[in-house]
């Protein structure tokens, strides 16, 4: 049995009209320092139709793909993608007033970060 390690996660939300404070969870980002793990999962699906103000799903997908590139440290993610894991996680989960936001960061303990990310994605998004 593996030792359980501290992890942090936040849900990724689409917020069509910030002033209305309505949102839909579309993803999860998880960071585990002990396992040197930072990754995310997201999905844009038919649930977004409940928000008629969302006109351009392709644009949302483009923003989330950029979020993913930064998260994964891909060169196409630009200078932010070159930051250390913890700094990338803090940047991705920083408070912002835009159509893509994250929840407050929550802690937990896990044995395998990737499996924990998948479980959180299934529980909180799907």
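^ structure tokens above, recovered residues below v
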């Amino acid at each position: 049995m593996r030792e359980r390690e501290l992890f942090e996660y936040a849900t990724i939300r689409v917020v069509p009209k910030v002033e209305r404070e309505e949102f839909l969870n579309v993803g999860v980002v998880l960071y585990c320092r002990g396992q040197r793990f930072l990754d995310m999962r997201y999905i844009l699906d038919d649930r977004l139709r409940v928000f008629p103000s969302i006109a351009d799903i392709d644009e949302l997908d483009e923003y989330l793909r950029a979020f993913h590139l930064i998260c994964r440290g891909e060169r196409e993610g630009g200078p932010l993608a070159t930051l250390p894991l913890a700094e990338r996680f803090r940047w991705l989960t920083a408070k912002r007033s835009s159509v893509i936001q994250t929840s407050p960061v929550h802690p937990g303990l896990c044995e395998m970060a990737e499996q924990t990310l998948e479980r959180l994605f299934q529980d909180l998004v799907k």
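The chain is about 30% helix and 25% strand.
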